[in-house]
Amino acid sequence: MKKGFFTLLAGVMMSAQMMAVTTQDVCGRFQGLLNIGGQTYQNKQVYLLPGTVDNTVTFVLPDFTFGSKGKLGNIVLPNIPMDAAGKLTLENSTLYLDSIQERANITVLNGLEDGGRVYNSIVTDNEAQVLLQIGAPSLPQPILVLFQGTATTGKNYVIENGGFEGAWTNNEPAGWHSFGTATGIMADFVLDNTYQFVASTDVRPSTSGSQSALLSSNMLMGVKANGNCTNGQINAGSMTADAPADNYNFSDPTNAGYNTPLQGRPDSLVFWAKYVPADKNPANEVNRARASVVLTTDARYQDPETANFGEARIAKAEINFAATAEMGWQRLAVPFLYNSEDMPAYILTTFTTNQVPGGGSSYSIGSSFNKVNVVDSVYLDDVELVYNKELSQFTKDGVGLEFLHRVATLESNYCDDCAKFAAVADGRSAQTFIAFDAAHKCIYIYVIADDYQQSGDYRLYRVEFADSQVTDLNPLNQAVEMTEADQLPSQKILRNGTLYIRRGDAIFDITGRKVR
């Protein structure tokens, strides 16, 4: 080969003399430099996914493009053997590329010397170097593909401390703020209102945590003040409760400690709440607590939103909710409504004891000379962002396949070039990768969402053929317990732009929660 072929590709050179690693250690999303036939591309991403055989990984190079051939699709190499040092070895693997209707021969190389350096295909928990040789009949000669990158750690895809756990300082847990750290011209009047946001041991059912947050309303100089918490900062600018230009929660990229970075595009907000209005009357229409989560660009944003800040909003999940009849805990799920395809930079979360500033029921006990005001209370626990990662459709030549417990079967024998297979995920950010496992004569579909690097969660589906050999494969990834919705034959239905699943007489949302 031409000497110095990879010299433009700068990176940390890796060797096989490293600490022992497992496939669980190395799997994730990596970003770095990609060299294809001597041409270097920056900020390219690859995935290392768990293989379906012990001590193997699946390598994914999305949207592979080469010269005049253009975009050849995803390069997905399943079940690459990996030794204890992280060294990858795969010889003479074949992959049919539908875009050029040719079968490529792909080898994972090691020990290739170029420009005085030796290149190995080796991975660790934070670095990856993978060298491929790809040949196809229409290529004049095999091409070399070298990826060198690091794990995409340090990015955030969650609401920090959604369980309100740990020590509270000035009545604020890590990641959350209330009146005790408010700013604005009226801040001095509310800084002592730390009792409106306190830790509680009344936690939602089946939680693994030991604390929740309790929001309470209050009377200030005859004006009712809602309980309010945020992962941004409160601006107290007016004694008039309903003054959105003066009283608001805000996120400012320059406001260190009072903004929360977010890089993902979640599908929904899920949280637990126990709402106890002052009059304990769920039918009273003024008794509606509020939750609002807004994904924003890297510009300042405030909630309630005024005209000047609409351009910074990328998506919003908002709900005004009533108490249960028993004043108990309830799980609430709210979809994000997107108005932009931009990638979020920050997330602003707000919870208040009432949807209307200064709102809520008025109730007091005692005599006219000794009145005691009863407040609105909202307990909050386990606030989470949900990234959908299920397979919503998989087709063979345009005809959908039915899956039972993530497995579909075909009566024909295995093939990877006699039909066109296509996969669609149910998540806004989810990607699907189809792996043709010729050794076991089956097809795997990986569904990966934005938060994979942080959560390690994914979904794996399998298509079996009449001649499939799957007895020595590991069980399918089941990152969530089977719900009631998994047990019955399904029918997908679309209502007002939202996908639901009908099983029997019941209807479930895409998270498996029964809605009717």
SSE layout and pairings?
Layout: H1 23-26, E1 28-36, E2 39-50, E3 56-66, E4 70-81, E5 90-97, E6 102-108, E7 112-114, E8 117-119, E9 122-123, E10 127-135, E11 143-151, H2 187-190, E12 197-200, E13 212-216, E14 218-220, E15 223-225, E16 228-230, E17 233-235, E18 248-251, E19 268-276, E20 289-296, E21 301-303, E22 313-321, E23 329-335, E24 337-338, E25 346-352, E26 364-365, E27 372-373, E28 377-386, E29 391-396, E30 399-400, E31 407-409, E32 421-425, E33 431-437, E34 442-448, H3 452-455, E35 459-464, E36 491-495, E37 498-503, E38 506-508
Parallel strand pairs: 31-35
Antiparallel strand pairs: 1-2, 1-11, 2-3, 3-4, 5-6, 6-10, 7-8, 9-10, 10-11, 12-13, 13-28, 14-15, 16-25, 17-18, 18-21, 19-23, 19-28, 20-22, 20-25, 22-24, 26-27, 29-30, 29-32, 33-34, 34-35, 36-37, 37-38
Q: What is this structure, in a nutshell?
A:
By secondary structure, the chain is mainly beta. It folds into four domains: 23-151, Porin (Beta Barrel); 179-386, Jelly Rolls, CATH 2.60.120; 391-471, no CATH class; 481-516, no CATH class.
Descriptive report:
The protein has 516 residues and is an all-beta fold. It has four domains: 23-151, Porin; 179-386, Sandwich (Jelly Rolls), CATH 2.60.120.890; 391-471, no CATH class; 481-516, no CATH class. Strands 1, 2, 3, 4, 5, 6, 9, 10 and 11 form a nine-stranded antiparallel β-sheet that branches. It has a five-stranded antiparallel β-sheet with strand order 12-13-28-19-23, with no helix packed on it. A hairpin with a 4-residue loop joins β5 and β6 (102-108). The longest helix has 4 residues, at 23-26. The model is unreliable at 478-489 (pLDDT under 50).
